[in-house]
Amino acid sequence: MDTSEDLPNYIALQSVPDRKFDILPGASADLTSMTFCVKEEDHTLGNSLRWAIMQNPQVDFCGYSIPHPSEAKMNIRIQTTEKSNAIDAMDKGIDDLKSVCQLIKAKFQQRCQEGDYARIG
Amino acid sequence: MALEDRNRVVILEDRVENVSGAEFPMSFDGQETAFNMESFKDSFDIRIVRVTPTDIEFDLIGVDASIANALRRVLIAEVPTMAIEKVYMINNTGIVQDEVLAHRLGLIPIKADPTEFLWKHDGSVPTDQNTIVFRLDVTCEANRAAAPGETDPKKKYINSSVYSNQLVWDPKGDQSVRFESNPIKPVNDEILITKLRPGQTISCELHCEKGVGKDHAKFSPVATASYRLLPEIQILEDITGDDAELFRSCFPDGVVEIVEERGVRKAKVVNPRKDTVSREVFRHKQFEDKVRLTRVRNHFIFNVESTGAIPPETLISQALDVLMEKCEISKAALAAAVKSGEEDE
């Protein structure tokens, strides 16, 4: 997997498995319902990604589970209307979550710079 | 449900109601709740309350609990720091066994910027880019200058207690130049590592590596990272006279004050932040139907206390970077999974 050199790499590449995403058997032929199995992820990404995906009006259902606590796997299921499909919904959810993080970071740094708070010590 | 009540958790005498939110498209009749970045931008805000060299308190307003919780979880378990990972014991005649001593050493927070270091993968050799080396060489001996009959070990012996400031940084490669302005050392000087008595000695070499809290708690950059929801006290009907005094005494100091309006003493909520949401008011019959205790579901009061290795403001930015990196990795992995799925067909 390529990661840009200039970005500080917070996540160790050895902890990123070769097949991080898997599409579990049982997806519908029109791709509107699908379960993804994400390796090496937990509630941190699971719950926030579920929230981001559920904001999409084309998504009928989205839920996640961690089938067993000693396996580093997170399953996330998406069902969409016929106007979209689960892969697009997942892709959009990831993008939206990233934008939300970006916005929070920008706002946080703006507030830090404004310095409108008590600084002790 | 009224628009404003949607994001209130209601605290009742014997239960808590309206706990989970439903801010999703089509949840409410006739309301446009579909997510879009523009309206999120408008409703979302951050207010920094207090910053010290190790602590930060800030409000995260207008986000879902899953985002606030992801931020908290990343702070605890996924922001990398440097910590002692390998201890090469050359000599240890103290009473603390090698493995216990090594564990205690591992827990010492190290003041080093982890972004300056690379990950050390299994099997890769230690270099100046991925390892920090410390030495610990101490021997305890009798203090000849001590008064006869002295009973205090600190005066009677030299090095009777070994503290974290006795770790000596051994710069490798270009480290002495790279960290000239900010020499690497333990965050706190006075962490007691072990105790020794005359004749006992410890000699070891310590290697620090980059790691994350989910691997071992010693890598966690925070002592605590938590959030709570902003309490809100709604006075539905004026509370006056002696009742106002009683009402004020139901809350911690500074939450409710008494104001005089046209000669009538009236209870007024001035700082709900300080409230502990104790439900004391519900014990008094006269306040029934006059007060409602709630919490604002999308107003998170974050409290983050750093171990001192990374400044708290930097910590928050880094945690958000980690989340974004997770998104990037996931996006690429999703594309790869879809591609391999197409090839199989």
TrEMBL record, chain A:
GO terms for cellular component: nuclear DNA-directed RNA polymerase complex; RNA polymerase I complex; RNA polymerase III complex. Residues 34-105 form the DNA-directed RNA polymerase RBP11-like dimerisation domain. One of its GO terms (molecular function) is DNA-directed RNA polymerase activity. GO terms for biological process: transcription by RNA polymerase III; transcription elongation by RNA polymerase I. InterPro entries: RBP11-like, RBP11-like_dimer, RNA_pol_Rpb11_13-16kDa_CS, RNAP_AC19, Rpo11-like. Its main location: nucleus. Signal peptide: none annotated. Pfam families: RNA_pol_L_2. It comes from the Eukaryota. Keywords: DNA-directed RNA polymerase, Nucleus, Transcription. It is found in: Nucleus. Belongs to the archaeal Rpo11/eukaryotic RPB11/RPC19 RNA polymerase subunit family. This is DNA-directed RNA polymerases I and III subunit RPAC2. It comes from Coemansia guatemalensis. The lineage of its organism: Eukaryota, Fungi, Fungi incertae sedis, Zoopagomycota, Kickxellomycotina.
Automatic annotation (TrEMBL), chain B:
The lineage of its organism: Eukaryota, Fungi, Fungi incertae sedis, Zoopagomycota, Kickxellomycotina. Belongs to the archaeal Rpo3/eukaryotic RPB3 RNA polymerase subunit family. It is found in: Nucleus. It comes from the Eukaryota. Residues 55-333 form the DNA-directed RNA polymerase RpoA/D/Rpb3-type domain. This is DNA-directed RNA polymerases I and III subunit RPAC1. Pfam families: RNA_pol_A_bac, RNA_pol_L. GO terms for molecular function: DNA-directed RNA polymerase activity; protein dimerization activity. Keywords: DNA-directed RNA polymerase, Nucleus, Transcription. InterPro entries: DNA-dir_RNA_pol_insert (IPR011262), DNA-dir_RNA_pol_RpoA/D/Rpb3 (IPR011263), RBP11-like (IPR036603), RNAP_Rpo3/Rpb3/RPAC1 (IPR022842), RNAPI/III_AC40 (IPR033901), RNApol_insert_sf (IPR036643), Rpo3/RPB3_RNA_Pol_subunit (IPR050518).
